[in-house]
Amino acid sequence: MAERNKEPIRILVADDDPAVLSVYRSILGGEGSARSDGANAMKELSARLFGGDGTPQAVRAQFELACVGDAEAAVNAVRDALEKRRPFAVIFLDMRMPPGPDGAWAAARIRTLDTDVDIVIATAYADVDPWEISERIPPVDKLFYLQKPFHPHEVRQLALAIGRKAQAEARIRHQLAYFDPLTGLPNRNFFQTRLYQAIELARRHSRQLAVLFIDLDNFKCVNDTLGHSVGDQLLQITAKRLTRSVRGCDVVTRHPPGEQLHDLARLGGDEFTVLLAEIGKGEDAAGVAVRILENLAEPLHLAGHDMIVTSSLGIAVFPQDGEDVETLLKSADMAMYHAKRMGRNSFQYFSRSMNEGALKRLTLESRLRRAIDQNELSLHYQPQLDLLTGEVCGMEALLRWESTELGQVPPMEFIPIAEESGLIIPIGEWVLRTACRQVRAWRDAGLALSRMAVNVSALQFVQAGFPGLVARTLEAIGLESCRLELEVTETALIKDSENAIDTLRKLKALGVKLAVDDFGTGYSSLSRLKDFPLDRLKIDRSFIRALPSSPGDKAIATAVIAMANSMNLKVIAEGVENDGQIDFLRDRNCDEIQGYLVSRPLPVDQAEDFLRKTVVNRVAPPVP
Ligand code: C2E
Ligand code: MG
Ligand code: MG
Question: What's the whole-model pTM score?
Answer without folding.
Answer: 0.54
